[in-house]
Design brief:
The protein has 593 residues and is α+β, with helices and mostly antiparallel strands. The protein contains twelve helices and 21 strands. Among the domains are: 124 residues, 2-Layer Sandwich (Beta-Lactamase); 160 residues, 2-Layer Sandwich (Heat Shock Protein 90). The strands form six sheets. The chain has a five-stranded antiparallel sheet. A five-stranded antiparallel sheet has the order 9-8-12-11-10. A five-stranded mixed sheet has the order 14-17-18-21-20, covered by helices on one side. Helix 7 packs parallel to helix 8 and helix 9 runs antiparallel to helix 10. The longest helix is centred in the middle third of the chain and has 59 residues. The two termini are 47 Å apart.
Length: 593
């Protein structure tokens, strides 16, 4: 079966070898990617934990002051019932607590009426029209909020509010407020060392999402807060980190930590340009580096195979192809850069090609001598057969009886048929391929000229398709045609109502996907015989020969006797070689005409 070259890219060695290497390295690469991803994830988690810890560290002072303020408020709220009836004693208590803690600017007990008579300030104060007061009374829970314009303190303050309840624990009867000035808890002052070491911005906010403090000032805080997350949405969260952009469109990392449980939270903000965020601002995922290394190995393997193997294989392929097409090649090494294995392969090919050319030259000489000898044999056999036919013809002239002449004539026709076959064999250029269309026409014309007188009322029709057979089939087919045509000429007749008899010979060839088949048909008209033949003394030799030749062809013979026509149909398969069957061992039933 001829080799069919596939030009698919995957069939190339320069592609297959890197693919095989990639499959071998794939498990290692997969493990490297997973491990790198795990390490990267762990580094990011540690970085976020570090940021959270730095946020907690940055608000240590704020946490202490605010928690202390709520503690102070809770302590006063538990004691206020004993001093609330005496405004002077109650105010004295508030003043003493304020004086002892420099972080407090104002402490007061505010009843539900909003009229303050117990405070660290001098004289009564009213806040009944304050919106914050009304909201705090309605909620009735500890909380902190910003008062930018306090009534007593100078400057903005953070008020830590603690509800005061009666002994039966019903609705609040008021609340204790502890005011802490912003100056006392500013992150830029309280944690100056931390802020100088780390580029961090700290914000605090209450559970209502109200901003309490900012390291860069409340007036500038909005530009650094997360743009897509409101502070109210961060309330109630445990310690967490997230990325977002600020109002300026700069991407920042934020960390949220509780300052006073459920009341105050701290928000730390870092720019991604800071050193602490280096593990988080990687433009390329670390997991891509093993993949890039894998791709680099594939590229190196590709060019290595191309340089060390494929280039030399192409040169060797060119030599092989040139040798296969033209039987020419040049003896030359592949080059110093070629591997020793390919050098050995090239040397082996050159030695093999030299031996092949020498062997082919010897075979051509032997084949030429064989053809010359075979043609000489066929030529001499043809001459001998023609000599025998001439001797038979001389003997026929001396015979007196018609019956004896007919017997010798039949023998002469068979001998001449064999001579014609051998003549065609030595005249053909290829002894193993006989053109049957030329051979059969020559046999037909010879038999027609011998067996039909010029003045007879007979016509000949032939239709022979081109067909090439080996001598093993060409000889028996020609002899079968000779016997069948001789038999037809004996029994040909003129049909009733017609003037002439006729003989028609056709050879058709057809081929399917697996086999080539042929069909030979010899048909003659029947009726009043043109030649007188004594059928009573027929020996049946012709019929036996027909069957013998058909068996050598591995053919099937079919006879059809119709009104005014008789046909012999021979069907056979064209094959390479069929052993000759001895004629004397074949004893089939004769064909009746």
């Amino acid at each position: 079966m001829p080799f069919r070259q596939s030009n698919h890219p995957l069939n190339r060695l320069v592609v297959r070898l890197p693919l095989v290497l990639s499959l071998v390295l794939m498990p290692i690469g997969f493990i490297a990617v997973v491990q790198t991803y795990q390490v990267s994830t762990e580094v990011k988690q540690r970085a976020r934990s570090t940021l959270t810890a730095m946020t907690s560290e940055a608000v240590v002072a704020e946490r202490e002051i605010i928690q202390e303020a709520f503690g102070t408020g809770q302590g006063i709220a538990g004691y206020i019932e004993t001093v609330r009836p005496d405004p002077e004693a109650c105010s004295l208590l508030m003043k003493r607590v304020t004086e002892r803690n420099p972080n407090y600017s104002f402490i007061a007990y505010i009843p539900t009426s909003g009229e303050i008579t117990c405070s660290s300030a001098d004289g009564p104060v009213t806040i009944s029209d304050s919106a914050e007061f009304d909201a705090a009374m309605e909620r009735g829970v500890p909380e902190a909020f910003v008062d930018m314009n306090p009534i007593v303190s100078e400057g903005s303050v953070i008020s830590a509010v603690t509800p005061v309840r009666s002994l039966n624990g019903a609705a609040p009867i008021g609340y204790v407020t502890v005011a802490v000035p912003h100056d006392a808890i500013s992150p830029s002052d309280a944690d100056e060392g931390t802020l100088e070491t780390h580029p961090i911005e700290i914000f605090t906010f209450n559970k209502e999402g109200q901003l309490l403090t900012a390291s860069l000032g409340l007036e500038n805080a909005e530009s650094r807060l997360p743009q897509n997350r409101a502070l109210i949405n961060l309330v109630g969260s445990d310690t967490t980190t997230f990325s977002d952009t600020d109002a300026s469109g700069i991407e920042r990392l934020y960390a949220v930590v509780p300052v006073a449980d459920g009341k105050v939270y701290a928000l730390g903000s870092w720019s991604y340009a800071s050193t602490e965020l280096a593990p988080l601002r990687q433009g390329v995922s670390p997991a891509l580096f093993p993949i890039l290394m894998w791709l680099t190995c594939l590229i190196v393997a590709y060019f290595a195979v191309e340089r060390l193997v494929i280039t030399h294989l192409k040169r060797l392929r060119h030599k092989l192809r040139a040798f296969s097409q033209t039987r020419e090649f040049s003896i030359a090494p592949l080059g110093a850069s070629a591997p020793s294995e390919l050098q050995e392969l090239n040397a082996s090919f050159e030695a093999m090609a030299t031996n092949v050319l020498q062997d082919e030259a010897q075979l051509e000489d032997m084949l030429f001598e064989k053809n010359v000898l075979l043609k000489e044999v066929h030529h001499r056999v043809k001459n001998n057969l023609q000599l025998i036919a001439s001797i038979i013809n001389m003997q026929m002239r001396k015979l007196e009886t018609q019956e004896a002449r007919m017997a010798l004539r039949n023998i002469q026709e068979r001998v001449l048929g064999l001579a014609t076959i051998h003549q065609r064999l030595y005249q053909t250029d290829m002894l193993t391929a006989v053109p049957m269309n030329d051979l059969l026409r020559e046999v037909i014309n010879q038999l027609w000229n011998l067996g039909v007188a010029p003045e007879s009322k007979l016509t000949l029709k032939t239709n022979i398709d081109p067909l090439i057979l080996l001598p093993d089939q060409a000889v028996p087919l020609s002899l079968l045609l000779t016997e069948a045509m001789t038999n037809a000429l004996k029994h040909i007749g003129v049909p009733e109502g017609e003037e002439n008899g006729w003989l028609e010979i056709t050879l058709t060839a057809n081929e399917d996907e697996t086999h080539q088949r042929a069909e030979l048909c010899i048909a003659n008209s029947t009726g009043e015989r043109v030649t007188a033949v004594n059928d009573h003394h027929s020996s049946g030799l012709g019929q036996r020969l027909l069957m013998a030749f058909a068996q050598q062809l591995d053919a099937k013979i079919e006879t059809v006797d119709e009104d005014g026509m008789y046909r012999v149909i021979v069907r056979f398969e064209v094959h390479d070689f069929t052993p000759d069957a001895p004629v004397d061992e074949v004893a089939p039933e004769p064909i009746e005409h």
